[in-house]
Write a structure and sequence with these properties.
CATH class of the largest domain: Alpha Beta
Shape: globular
CATH architecture of the largest domain: 3-Layer(aba) Sandwich
Number of domains: 3
Helix content: 40-55%
CATH superfamily of the largest domain: Vaccinia Virus protein VP39
CATH topology of the largest domain: Rossmann fold
Largest sheet: 7 strands, mixed
Oligomer: single chain
């Protein structure tokens, strides 16, 4: 798709045309980040400032588009509007309950966005996010809605302000019951997380100093000795440090999850759901060139990316293989001789609800109603991978989700079904305690 080949009769601003193309007529749009990588790139949008503006606005549609529906609903109904403006908590509770019933799933939300004109939709999104101006009447309504919801302060009001669909209410209540600070979590959902990189702990100060000489603002993490937070970054992937393998881009919560795996030089490790290899490389670094990391995935293009990253970082001890999770793979003889793996990581596919700050469209693409098949996959992968852990070895289950059903429930069911493993503990990692994504990690040892 080239922007200069669009319908000449479509005179809408480019951001509106892009949004309509992404939303399409299908029930479920493609992931927004992959759409942006194809359609908002230098060959199609030459100016960097324009690419940033388009990206920010399209991300804002997912951060503020749900609240935009609420604003539009009030603007079109005088009685509800006047009741809301009166600030009566009971009336607002009824209004929120009605809104929750109106949009019980993501399909209804997508359909409502399709029905609203893109110009009107972007007026709301621009006003609510502060990224664009809009008509005075809508500006006044947006301000009153945000102030009224903040004054109410209830769970549903906080969710709406955070752009979190109300069909997640039960999931948030379940997480809060386990001691999680849901209020702090919600308060961060419309703030993009910073860029984190991972360096070897022994090289962190050196990498920090070199980046600072290039006028990059850098902060060290206080909870992870391999993590650096970057600001004002331009052309990071073109830097000599990157091409020399001095660092990898990896979120802080992901680094903390990877650090729950105890490996020493000489260990045999299997990253069962490796993806493009962020934690694979983290584990290989911990081995200091001794031992081996097997990395598997069911998507060949991700393994291709992993191999490329491994070559750049000069990790010769990474082996890749295709795995679909039905049973343990047939590993080479060296693994059998070793008695299995010293550590196995299952970074399972999940709803990605812990990455809403980075991928805000995930709050609509994955919903509680679609959990059943995800949970079945997670349960199957964990059980299949566990068979390859040697006696005394460690098994770690990780997700980038806050949902109890994907986390503690899976870990506890596994422990009950596999008495040969003892639990070493489980915990939430990342946001809201630190400025990153939100992860879960549960660790087991084979008796």
């Amino acid at each position: 798709m080239r922007h200069d080949r669009r319908d000449p009769d479509d005179r809408r601003p480019l951001v509106e045309r892009l949004f309509s193309e992404w939303l399409g007529r299908n029930e479920l749009p493609s992931p927004l980040d992959s759409f942006l990588s194809r359609n908002v790139r230098p060959q199609l949008v030459p100016e960097p400032w324009q690419r940033k503006k388009l990206t920010d606005l399209l991300f804002a549609t997912q951060q503020f588009g749900y609240l935009a529906l609420f604003c539009d609903d009030l603007l079109d109904d005088r009685a509800r509007r006047e009741s809301f403006d009166a600030g009566n908590p009971v009336s607002l509770d009824k209004t929120l309950a009605r809104f929750a019933a109106l949009y019980p799933d993501a399909t209804r939300i997508y359909d409502a966005w399709r029905l609203m004109t893109t110009t009107r939709f972007f007026h709301w999104v621009g006003l609510l996010s502060g990224l664009m101006p809009g008509p005075e009447g809508m500006k006044d309504r947006a301000a009153k809605v945000q102030a009224g919801l903040a004054a109410h302060g209830g769970r549903r009001a906080k969710m709406l302000l955070a752009g979190v669909p109300l069909f997640y209410e039960a999931a948030l209540e379940a997480r809060e019951a386990l001691g999680f600070d849901v209020t702090a979590f919600l308060s961060r959902q419309n703030q993009r997380p910073p860029l984190w990189i991972r360096t070897p702990a022994t090289e962190r100060e050196t990498v920090k100093a070199i980046l600072e000489k290039s006028h990059v603002k850098v902060r060290k993490s206080e909870v992870c000795d391999t993590a650096l937070e970057l600001e004002t970054v331009k052309s990071l992937y073109e830097s000599s440090l990157f091409h020399e393998g001095a660092f990898e881009v990896q979120d802080l919560a992901s680094q903390l999850a990877g650090a729950t795996i105890s490996v020493r030089p000489g260990a045999f490790v299997w990253d069962a759901c490796a993806g493009s290899g962020g934690k694979t490389l983290q584990l290989a670094t911990a081995l200091h060139g001794r031992g081996v990391v097997y990395a598997s995935d069911n998507l060949p293009y991700k393994l291709d990316a992993l191999r490329k990253r491994a070559r750049r970082a000069e990790h010769a001890n990474i082996r890749t293989l295709d795995w679909h999770g039905d049973s343990a793979p047939e590993f080479p003889h060296e693994v059998k001789q070793h008695g299995g793996f010293d550590a196995v990581l299952v970074d399972a596919p999940c709803t990605s609800s812990g990455t809403w700050r980075r991928n805000p469209d995930a709050r609509f693409r994955h919903t509680p109603k679609g959990l059943a098949s995800t949970i079945e996959t997670q349960t199957r992968l964990l059980a299949a991978a566990a068979a390859s852990v040697r006696v005394g070895g460690q098994l770690v289950y990780v997700t980038c989700s806050f949902l109890v059903d994907e986390n503690e429930a899976i870990a506890e069911a596994f422990a009950a079904a596999h008495p040969e493993f003892e639990s070493l503990g489980q915990r939430m990692l990342g946001c809201p305690e630190v400025n990153g994504d939100t992860f879960f990690a549960a660790s087991f040892r084979r008796r």
